[in-house]
Amino acid sequence: MYKALTLSALGLSLLVGLATNPVAQDKPDDERKKVFGKTFEEKVEDAVDSGCDWLKKQQGIEKGEDPAVFGQFPPNPPLYGAGEPHRYRFARTAFPVQALCKSGVFADDPAVVKAMDYIRKNYKENGVLRSEAGFVPSTTYEDATVLNAIEAYYVSLMEAKERGLENPKKRVMEDENGKKVPIKRWGTEEKGAKKAKEKKKQPIVLSAQDKKVAELAVKALIHRYRKAYGGGGWRYAPSGQGENDPIIECSATQYALMGFLCATRMGISYDRSFLMDVYHFYRTQQDKDGPEVVRKEKDAEGKDIDKPEDDPGKKKDPNRSTRAYTPGKKDKARGWAYARESKHGSPQQIQADTNAYGSMTAAGVCALIMLREELENDPKMMPRWKPVADQCQQMLNDGMAWMVVNWTMKENPRRQMYRYYYYLYMVERIGMLGGIDWIGKHDWYMQGAEILLDQQTKGGASDGMWDIQNEIDPSDIYNTCYALLFLKRGTTGINRPKPVFTGGDGED
Predict the structure, then answer these.
(1) Which helix (H) or strand (E) holds 34?
(2) Contact by Cβ (8 Å): 480, 467
(3) Nearest to 88 by CA among 238, 235, 216, 222
(4) pLDDT at residue 304 tops 60
(5) Rounded CA gap, 251 and 337, in Å?
(6) I want to staple 118 with a disulfide (CB 3.0 to 4.6 A). Which of 68, 70, 198, 276 is the partner?
(7) 91-102 vs 40-57: helix crossing angle, rounded to 10
(8) At a CB cut-off of 8 Å and minimum separation 6, what does 38 contact?
(9) Which fold has domain 3-309+319-487?
């Protein structure tokens, strides 16, 4: 008896490739009302409104810190290496910009303006590349997050213009009683939010100043790149702190790749040749074996399909040529760990870091999707990529099989509540990057949204916040950003057709 894996769980594989800005299939309104008491969209938008309001209030609350930085850094933070703890000032400005702008906050909102001005002023080579005294230092995660923030900022500008809301004086609408009320976010209205996901992407044209910042962030990521463990990648630690334990790891590496993907969408070019070594790093880091999982293909209505659609009279889609799907084929559930080579901490910590778990497996799947996107669309790289394309496909299939076998949205699989909201964010990125509505029989979005709507703080000074204190500091800032990005499905999809398959997994 093998656990069955549906095509929707392998929407990355597959017969129709990956999606452009996909939207998960939500439950009908009557079902949503039974679960939430209001329509699903109303509850989500209420939660996002509260979350954005809370997040903006956290800007400049730390005494002695720049007023653009979000959150309160603890007085005695843990040290992850020698010397002064890194305060992640760029992450604490850029990540909130990404979350706010992808949630529909206008780019001219004072909190966004202040944060973007901080990045433009302080993201300089002296601190980013050389860590000179008196300049704000950076890390891999922050370089990637700066690129995400710039992209999100311009998305907000374009969406406001698309709706005729670039002029603040026009940001009013009538409520159900005919009374004029202010529009707080360009994405609050249901139709507008969904259209933002479905429409064709427009080219992003950066200002000269922002292009310079983005180019520096790409330069910084390339500067931090290292070869190790049969491939190449990145790590989180600032220069000089714990450099050899491990040299590179899966989480920071997938963040770097997200930065490069944003750079490509913003017209920032770079030599992609080193990405082949990044691919080989993920190949060496995936589990060598795992339980067998049988693919079971279903269409969008849950009906079995005997074979892939293959009409010889139709012109073949080049995006489908290497993604043929064979129902009944057995994949192996193979996940990713944080770093197989880690020797840091207690024996329990080392065991946790070197064995596969949920957020790292999701990160591995996301990394492969982004690598494939970057390499397949570069004619210079195709001769090197083509020989491993099928191998990459099987790695994706096996990674998603691991997600199905270990499925839960109530905790980070095999790590309990460790960095739980980060896990939710990784699942959201799989869904949006891969165009996946269902993972196995699971509607990942509805399951995660129900949890987040329940866990959001209600009332008091923390009204609108998400935090279970399981993140790096300040955990309330990061967890709230993760939650907002999940609820608004904030990750931009890649340019592939949307899969039409859904279905469930069970026993064969």
Answers:
(1) helix 29-36
(2) yes
(3) 238
(4) no
(5) 9
(6) 68
(7) 150
(8) 32, 46
(9) Glycosyltransferase (1.50.10)
Mean pLDDT to the nearest integer, 93-121: 98
Query: 134 with 122: CB under 8 angstroms?
Result: no
Residue length of the chain:
508
List the chain domain ranges. Answer: 3-309+319-487
Cα-based torsion angle of the residue sequence 164, 58, 477, 97 in order, rounded to the nearest 10 degrees: 30
Dihedral pair phi/psi, residue 419, rounded to 5°: 45, 50
**HSE, side-chain direction, 13 A CA sphere, residue 147:** 27
Q: Cα 50 to chain center, whole Å?
A: 22
CA 54 to chain centre: 22
For tokens 């095509």, name the residue: 7
Q: How confident is the model at residue 199 (pLDDT cuts 50, 70, 90)?
A: low
CB burial of residue 112 (10 Å; 0-12, 13-18, 19+): buried
Supply 144's token pair.
């990637």
* Reported confidence tier of residue 277, pLDDT bands at 50, 70, 90: very high
| Residue 121 token pair | 């002023």
